[in-house]
Protein backbone atom coordinates (compact mmCIF):
# COMPACT_ATOMS: atom_id res chain seq x y z
CA UNK A 1 0.00 0.00 0.00
CA UNK A 2 1.18 3.41 -0.91
CA UNK A 3 0.23 6.23 1.52
CA UNK A 4 0.10 9.89 0.52
CA UNK A 5 -0.61 12.44 3.23
CA UNK A 6 -1.59 16.05 2.49
CA UNK A 7 -2.26 19.11 4.62
CA UNK A 8 -5.72 19.77 3.23
CA UNK A 9 -8.74 18.08 1.68
CA UNK A 10 -8.24 20.25 -1.43
CA UNK A 11 -4.80 18.72 -1.96
CA UNK A 12 -6.20 15.22 -1.33
CA UNK A 13 -8.83 15.87 -4.01
CA UNK A 14 -6.39 17.30 -6.54
CA UNK A 15 -3.97 14.41 -6.13
CA UNK A 16 -6.74 11.76 -6.37
CA UNK A 17 -8.06 13.44 -9.52
CA UNK A 18 -4.56 13.34 -10.99
CA UNK A 19 -4.36 9.58 -10.39
CA UNK A 20 -7.74 9.00 -12.01
CA UNK A 21 -6.99 11.35 -14.91
CA UNK A 22 -3.83 9.39 -15.65
CA UNK A 23 -5.84 6.17 -16.04
CA UNK A 24 -8.41 7.91 -18.29
CA UNK A 25 -5.67 9.49 -20.43
CA UNK A 26 -3.87 6.17 -20.86
CA UNK A 27 -6.99 4.17 -21.74
CA UNK A 28 -9.85 6.06 -23.38
CA UNK A 29 -12.43 3.36 -22.61
CA UNK A 30 -11.25 2.86 -19.02
CA UNK A 31 -13.75 1.40 -16.57
CA UNK A 32 -13.90 3.57 -13.46
CA UNK A 33 -15.26 2.03 -10.28
CA UNK A 34 -16.80 4.97 -8.45
CA UNK A 35 -17.90 5.78 -4.91
CA UNK A 36 -20.32 8.30 -3.47
CA UNK A 37 -20.22 10.02 -0.05
CA UNK A 38 -18.26 13.07 1.05
CA UNK A 39 -14.75 11.75 0.42
CA UNK A 40 -14.66 11.82 -3.41
CA UNK A 41 -16.72 15.02 -3.92
CA UNK A 42 -13.63 17.24 -4.16
CA UNK A 43 -12.00 14.83 -6.58
CA UNK A 44 -15.08 14.92 -8.82
CA UNK A 45 -14.90 18.74 -8.78
CA UNK A 46 -11.25 18.57 -9.87
CA UNK A 47 -12.10 16.14 -12.67
CA UNK A 48 -14.82 18.51 -13.91
CA UNK A 49 -12.23 21.32 -13.89
CA UNK A 50 -9.82 19.22 -15.95
CA UNK A 51 -12.61 18.45 -18.42
CA UNK A 52 -13.57 22.13 -18.69
CA UNK A 53 -9.94 23.07 -19.32
CA UNK A 54 -9.92 20.58 -22.19
CA UNK A 55 -7.33 18.27 -20.65
CA UNK A 56 -9.65 15.31 -20.03
CA UNK A 57 -12.06 13.53 -22.37
CA UNK A 58 -14.71 11.20 -20.91
CA UNK A 59 -16.50 10.39 -24.17
CA UNK A 60 -15.46 6.72 -24.14
CA UNK A 61 -15.06 6.32 -20.38
CA UNK A 62 -17.28 3.82 -18.58
CA UNK A 63 -18.18 3.76 -14.93
CA UNK A 64 -19.63 1.33 -12.48
CA UNK A 65 -20.62 2.39 -8.98
CA UNK A 66 -20.09 0.53 -5.75
CA UNK A 67 -23.52 0.69 -4.25
CA UNK A 68 -27.06 2.03 -4.05
CA UNK A 69 -29.69 2.25 -1.31
CA UNK A 70 -32.53 -0.24 -1.54
CA UNK A 71 -35.83 1.49 -2.23
CA UNK A 72 -34.50 4.76 -3.67
CA UNK A 73 -34.89 5.31 -7.40
CA UNK A 74 -32.53 7.46 -9.42
CA UNK A 75 -34.69 10.57 -9.05
CA UNK A 76 -34.51 10.53 -5.26
CA UNK A 77 -32.07 13.24 -4.23
CA UNK A 78 -30.31 10.90 -1.79
CA UNK A 79 -29.96 8.04 -4.26
CA UNK A 80 -26.43 7.32 -5.37
CA UNK A 81 -27.49 7.57 -9.04
CA UNK A 82 -28.66 11.13 -8.37
CA UNK A 83 -25.41 11.85 -6.50
CA UNK A 84 -23.30 10.67 -9.44
CA UNK A 85 -25.35 12.58 -11.99
CA UNK A 86 -25.18 15.83 -10.06
CA UNK A 87 -21.59 15.54 -8.80
CA UNK A 88 -19.96 14.31 -12.00
CA UNK A 89 -21.83 12.86 -14.97
CA UNK A 90 -23.97 15.95 -15.74
CA UNK A 91 -20.83 18.11 -15.91
CA UNK A 92 -18.54 16.10 -18.18
CA UNK A 93 -18.92 14.50 -21.62
CA UNK A 94 -19.64 11.06 -20.27
CA UNK A 95 -22.28 9.06 -22.12
CA UNK A 96 -24.86 8.23 -19.42
CA UNK A 97 -25.43 4.89 -21.16
CA UNK A 98 -21.90 3.99 -20.09
CA UNK A 99 -22.54 4.76 -16.41
CA UNK A 100 -23.88 2.08 -14.12
CA UNK A 101 -25.21 2.21 -10.57
CA UNK A 102 -26.90 -0.81 -8.93
CA UNK A 103 -30.70 -0.73 -9.17
CA UNK A 104 -32.04 -0.37 -5.63
CA UNK A 105 -35.62 -0.69 -6.83
CA UNK A 106 -35.29 -3.95 -8.80
CA UNK A 107 -38.16 -6.33 -8.14
CA UNK A 108 -35.69 -9.14 -7.66
CA UNK A 109 -32.70 -7.59 -5.92
CA UNK A 110 -30.73 -10.85 -5.79
CA UNK A 111 -31.11 -11.38 -9.52
CA UNK A 112 -30.17 -7.72 -10.08
CA UNK A 113 -27.02 -8.21 -7.99
CA UNK A 114 -26.04 -11.28 -10.01
CA UNK A 115 -26.53 -9.35 -13.25
CA UNK A 116 -24.35 -6.52 -11.87
CA UNK A 117 -21.43 -8.93 -11.39
CA UNK A 118 -21.96 -10.24 -14.92
CA UNK A 119 -21.94 -6.66 -16.16
CA UNK A 120 -18.60 -5.96 -14.44
CA UNK A 121 -17.17 -9.11 -16.05
CA UNK A 122 -18.54 -8.15 -19.47
CA UNK A 123 -16.86 -4.74 -19.16
CA UNK A 124 -13.54 -6.53 -18.68
CA UNK A 125 -13.32 -5.69 -14.98
CA UNK A 126 -12.54 -2.39 -13.29
CA UNK A 127 -9.42 -0.43 -14.25
CA UNK A 128 -9.42 1.81 -11.22
CA UNK A 129 -11.65 1.60 -8.15
CA UNK A 130 -12.25 4.69 -6.03
CA UNK A 131 -13.13 3.98 -2.40
CA UNK A 132 -14.02 5.89 0.72
CA UNK A 133 -13.81 4.18 4.09
CA UNK A 134 -16.35 4.05 6.91
CA UNK A 135 -15.23 5.04 10.42
CA UNK A 136 -15.77 1.33 11.20
CA UNK A 137 -13.60 0.25 8.27
CA UNK A 138 -16.39 -0.60 5.82
CA UNK A 139 -15.76 -0.38 2.09
CA UNK A 140 -18.77 -0.08 -0.18
CA UNK A 141 -21.47 -1.34 2.17
CA UNK A 142 -19.39 -4.33 3.21
CA UNK A 143 -19.84 -3.85 6.92
CA UNK A 144 -17.74 -5.44 9.70
CA UNK A 145 -18.89 -9.05 10.17
CA UNK A 146 -17.68 -12.59 10.89
CA UNK A 147 -17.76 -13.24 7.17
CA UNK A 148 -17.95 -11.06 4.09
CA UNK A 149 -19.71 -11.64 0.80
CA UNK A 150 -17.59 -12.04 -2.28
CA UNK A 151 -20.12 -10.87 -4.85
CA UNK A 152 -22.63 -8.06 -5.27
CA UNK A 153 -25.42 -8.55 -2.73
CA UNK A 154 -28.03 -6.88 -0.57
CA UNK A 155 -26.47 -5.67 2.68
CA UNK A 156 -28.02 -4.61 5.98
CA UNK A 157 -26.53 -1.31 7.11
CA UNK A 158 -25.15 -1.20 10.63
CA UNK A 159 -26.53 1.16 13.27
CA UNK A 160 -23.27 3.15 13.02
CA UNK A 161 -23.51 3.60 9.25
CA UNK A 162 -27.18 4.61 9.44
CA UNK A 163 -26.22 7.22 12.05
CA UNK A 164 -23.27 8.43 9.94
CA UNK A 165 -25.47 8.77 6.83
CA UNK A 166 -28.40 10.40 8.64
CA UNK A 167 -26.77 13.80 8.00
CA UNK A 168 -27.97 13.58 4.39
CA UNK A 169 -31.62 12.78 5.26
CA UNK A 170 -34.39 14.69 7.02
CA UNK A 171 -34.09 12.32 9.96
CA UNK A 172 -32.41 9.06 10.92
CA UNK A 173 -35.57 7.07 10.31
CA UNK A 174 -35.52 8.12 6.63
CA UNK A 175 -32.16 6.44 6.03
CA UNK A 176 -32.70 3.18 4.13
CA UNK A 177 -31.59 0.18 6.18
CA UNK A 178 -30.41 -1.88 3.21
CA UNK A 179 -28.23 -1.31 0.18
CA UNK A 180 -27.09 -3.22 -2.87
CA UNK A 181 -23.31 -3.28 -2.78
CA UNK A 182 -20.43 -4.80 -4.67
CA UNK A 183 -18.83 -7.51 -2.59
CA UNK A 184 -15.12 -7.53 -1.83
CA UNK A 185 -14.53 -9.72 -4.92
CA UNK A 186 -15.01 -7.14 -7.69
CA UNK A 187 -13.28 -4.50 -5.54
CA UNK A 188 -10.16 -6.62 -5.04
CA UNK A 189 -10.16 -7.62 -8.71
CA UNK A 190 -9.86 -3.96 -9.80
CA UNK A 191 -6.48 -3.34 -11.41
CA UNK A 192 -5.82 -0.30 -9.27
CA UNK A 193 -7.46 1.09 -6.11
CA UNK A 194 -7.51 4.66 -4.79
CA UNK A 195 -8.84 5.04 -1.24
CA UNK A 196 -9.63 8.57 -0.08
CA UNK A 197 -10.07 9.52 3.58
CA UNK A 198 -10.24 12.86 5.31
CA UNK A 199 -11.03 13.91 8.84
CA UNK A 200 -10.19 12.65 12.29
CA UNK A 201 -13.19 10.30 12.44
CA UNK A 202 -11.42 8.14 9.84
CA UNK A 203 -8.12 7.93 11.73
CA UNK A 204 -8.90 4.63 13.50
CA UNK A 205 -10.01 2.90 10.28
CA UNK A 206 -6.96 4.26 8.44
CA UNK A 207 -4.66 2.95 11.18
CA UNK A 208 -6.08 -0.54 10.60
CA UNK A 209 -4.62 -0.34 7.07
CA UNK A 210 -1.08 -0.35 8.44
CA UNK A 211 -1.50 -2.84 11.31
CA UNK A 212 -0.28 -6.36 10.64
CA UNK A 213 -3.80 -7.83 10.65
CA UNK A 214 -6.40 -8.77 8.06
CA UNK A 215 -9.88 -9.24 9.44
CA UNK A 216 -13.44 -9.28 8.12
CA UNK A 217 -14.27 -7.24 11.26
CA UNK A 218 -12.53 -4.34 9.50
CA UNK A 219 -13.31 -4.99 5.82
CA UNK A 220 -10.81 -2.41 4.49
CA UNK A 221 -7.94 -4.51 5.89
CA UNK A 222 -8.55 -6.96 3.00
CA UNK A 223 -7.15 -4.28 0.70
CA UNK A 224 -3.71 -5.26 2.03
CA UNK A 225 -3.95 -8.27 -0.29
CA UNK A 226 -4.10 -6.01 -3.36
CA UNK A 227 -0.85 -5.09 -5.14
CA UNK A 228 -1.77 -1.56 -6.25
CA UNK A 229 -3.57 0.51 -3.60
CA UNK A 230 -2.93 4.22 -3.07
CA UNK A 231 -4.37 5.64 0.15
CA UNK A 232 -4.79 9.41 -0.11
CA UNK A 233 -5.21 11.14 3.25
CA UNK A 234 -5.38 14.50 4.87
CA UNK A 235 -3.32 14.91 8.03
CA UNK A 236 -6.34 14.40 10.32
CA UNK A 237 -7.15 11.01 8.76
CA UNK A 238 -3.46 10.14 9.02
CA UNK A 239 -3.18 11.28 12.65
CA UNK A 240 -2.94 7.75 14.11
CA UNK A 241 -0.36 6.45 11.64
C1 LIG B 1 -20.04 5.15 -0.89
C2 LIG B 1 -19.56 4.00 -0.10
C3 LIG B 1 -19.17 4.13 1.33
C4 LIG B 1 -18.42 5.42 1.65
C5 LIG B 1 -18.04 5.48 3.13
C6 LIG B 1 -17.38 6.79 3.47
O1 LIG B 1 -20.33 4.76 -2.21
O2 LIG B 1 -19.51 2.93 -0.60
O3 LIG B 1 -18.39 3.03 1.70
O4 LIG B 1 -17.27 5.49 0.85
O5 LIG B 1 -19.17 5.31 3.91
O6 LIG B 1 -18.32 7.81 3.32
P1 LIG B 1 -17.91 9.36 3.39
O7 LIG B 1 -16.99 9.57 2.25
O8 LIG B 1 -19.21 10.10 3.22
O9 LIG B 1 -17.25 9.56 4.69
- What is the rounded distance between the termini? 13 Å
Mean pLDDT over the residues: 97
* CATH topology descriptor: Rossmann fold
Shape, principal axes of CA atoms: globular
What is the CATH top level name? Alpha Beta
H-E order: EHEHEEHEHEEHEHEHE
Uncertain residue segments: none
What kind of oligomer do you see?
single chain
How many extended strands? 10
Main beta-sheet strand count, sense and barrel state: 7 strands, parallel
Strand content: 15-25%
Under the CATH scheme, the architecture is 3-Layer(aba) Sandwich
Report the total helices: 7
Q: SS-based structural class?
A: alpha/beta
What's the Cα radius of gyration? Answer: 17 Å
Hetero compounds? fructose -6-phosphate
- How helix-rich are the residues, as a percent range? 25-40%
Number of self-contained structural domains: 1
How are the strands of the biggest sheet laid out side by side?
Answer: 1-10-9-6-2-3-5
GO biological process, one term: N-acetylneuraminate catabolic process
Catalytic activity: alpha-D-glucosamine 6-phosphate + H2O = beta-D-fructose 6-phosphate + NH4(+)
Keywords: Carbohydrate metabolism, Hydrolase
Family: Belongs to the glucosamine/galactosamine-6-phosphate isomerase family. NagB subfamily.
What can you see in these coordinates?
The protein has 241 residues and is an alpha/beta fold. It has one domain (2-234): Rossmann fold (3-Layer(aba) Sandwich). The protein contains seven helices and ten strands. The chain has helices at residues 9-26, 41-52, 80-87, 109-122, 159-165, 184-189, 203-207, and strands at residues 2-6, 31-34, 62-65, 67-69, 99-100, 128-131, 153-156, 178-181, 192-197, 229-234. The strands form two sheets. A seven-stranded parallel beta sheet has the order 1-10-9-6-2-3-5, covered by helices on one side. Strands 4-8-7 form a three-stranded antiparallel beta sheet. It is globular and about 45 Å long. The two termini are 13 Å apart. The protein binds fructose -6-phosphate. Fructose -6-phosphate (F6R) binds at residues 35-39, 66-67, 132-134, 138-141. Catalyzes the reversible isomerization-deamination of glucosamine 6-phosphate (GlcN6P) to form fructose 6-phosphate (Fru6P) and ammonium ion.
Amino acid sequence: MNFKVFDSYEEVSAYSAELLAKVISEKEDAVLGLATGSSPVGMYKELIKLYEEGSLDFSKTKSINLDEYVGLDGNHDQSYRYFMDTNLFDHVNMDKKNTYVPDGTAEDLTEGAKKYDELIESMGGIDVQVLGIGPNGHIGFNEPADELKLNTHVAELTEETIKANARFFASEKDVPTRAVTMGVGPILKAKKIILIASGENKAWAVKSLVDDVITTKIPATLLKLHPDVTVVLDKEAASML
